[in-house]
Amino acid sequence: MSGIVYGTAGGSVEDLGTEAAEAGRQGEEHTGHVLNLMAVESQRDVWHDLDVPAKGIRANIDHIVTGGNVALIIDSKRWKPGLYWTLDDVSYRWLTKVEHADRRTMPMLQQRIAAHIPRALVRRPLVSVECSRDSGSVNVRFLHIPGANVTRASALPHRVRALVPDAPTDPDITAALYPLLRSS
Length: 184
Fold this sequence. Notes:
Layout: E1 5-6, H1 19-41, E2 45-51, E3 60-67, E4 70-79, E5 82-87, E6 90-93, E7 96-97, H2 105-116, E8 121-122, E9 126-131, E10 138-142, E11 149-152, H3 156-163, H4 171-177
Parallel strand pairs: 1-2, 4-8, 4-9, 5-10, 9-11
Antiparallel strand pairs: 2-3, 3-4, 5-6, 6-7
């Protein structure tokens, strides 16, 4: 028995015509492909492109992986090559500040999903970072994103397997997440 894939990865990335928007879409699609393969190979369910269950918040949740009564929020990032690190809550790529790494949205997402699905164990969110260029690499070993764990995209399957049980998703979790889907 395999898991189920809900939604479309990168389904609502705004088409701003910018390099950053296109990189974001590619990152979400790549992460989605990796997670979809995990769903086929296991009983975990994969959810892409969900609304945040809160009025007035326009952000989306890139991915959630569920198994049993566990939910793991995953945010996809596709960043320029370099060494990313954090000192005193300020993040850098080499010596240049990267303010987008210091946003505090991940704890809010975790809190909103946990309140929306009280029966679920909502793990600390995971931010998956991949390099935006084929000829470069991203080192995130010393990067600290508020309220989230950070991993290289290549280590994502291992991290998900360690955090989400290989079991069918609790039907109450499925019923709570399904209305949040932005795309089918």
